């Protein structure tokens, strides 16, 4: 599963060794998590999310509500524009009076 562990670790200026010590795991475990080779236990995920001050959703690249709402607004605006454009073309094509 794709995660943001490496990004969060680098942003915080923490080494893999320091992070491994935090969760009582090997450096290889951290490397495997960062590369997506192994899954993170829920216990370790909670520790990491708390440590990096992010939600579990953010740790695993899930979108937050603001991001989803923003994308929904963009889609709604695009659809509105597309419908308006389609109606104009339809009116022009069939010479319908407005």
What's the helix and strand layout?
Elements: H1 5-12, H2 16-22, H3 27-35, H4 42-52, H5 56-59, H6 65-93
Helix pairs in contact: 2-3
Using brief descriptors, characterize the structure shown.
single chain, 98 residues, mainly alpha, 6 helices, 69% helix, rod-shaped
3D architecture notes:
The protein is mainly α. The mean pLDDT is 84. The relative contact order is 0.12. The longest helix is centred in the last third of the chain and has 29 residues. The chain contains six helices and no strands.
**Cα distance spanning the termini:** 54 Å
DSSP strand (E) fraction?
Answer: under 5%
Low-confidence stretches: none
Largest sheet: none
Choose one word for the global shape. rod-shaped
Element order: H for helix, E for strand = HHHHHH
How many separate helices? 6
What average pLDDT do the residues reach? 84
Number of strands: 0
Please compute the radius of gyration using only Cα atoms.
Answer: 23 Å
Structural class: mainly alpha
Helical proportion, percent range: 55-70%
